[in-house]
Fold this sequence. Notes:
By secondary structure, this protein is α+β, with helices and mostly antiparallel strands. It has two helices and four strands; from the N terminus they run βαββαβ.
Amino acid sequence: SVTRGGAGVQFGAFASMSAAQTHAGxxxxxxxxxxxxEPNGSGLYRVRVYxxxxxxxxxxxxxxxxxxxxxxxxx
Length: 75
């Protein structure tokens, strides 16, 4: 069973839905994480993972960084 935590990881915000979806696909193929694309309400599309523990979020961020993908952890 997966513990749903209160942390998440953002992999960037993009001006177009298609760019955000492409980035989400890269994340899936490179680090095996299913990121969602969501509008942020001011014209950008965020690429995020939700509902992970702090430790899991830090691990995802480190793995992403090792693949040259910038990200940050949020709560």
